[in-house]
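Exercise 7.
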Amino acid sequence: MSDQHPSPKPSIILYSQPYCPACRRAKEFLSQHLVAFQELDVSEDYDARDDLWEVYGSQNTPTLVIDGEAFIGFRREAWATRLGIAGKP
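Solution. The predicted structure, written as tokens, is:
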């Protein structure tokens, strides 16, 4: 019998804005790969916007935060590698 436990799912936050084409592509990418994420709209959520700048040093959307590691901009390959879905369409 194995003592291995499934690894916990990472905490994933997507900072976005409604009229951001790259944000739409980012959400489509995450959804296509069945990645659960919390979306924060920085155009309406001022606390999220402050966190984006103060905590992650970003003023850009999309910014994806995976377990505290920020990826600024839609970086498909970097996101896929970090999420363990590299090589999948």
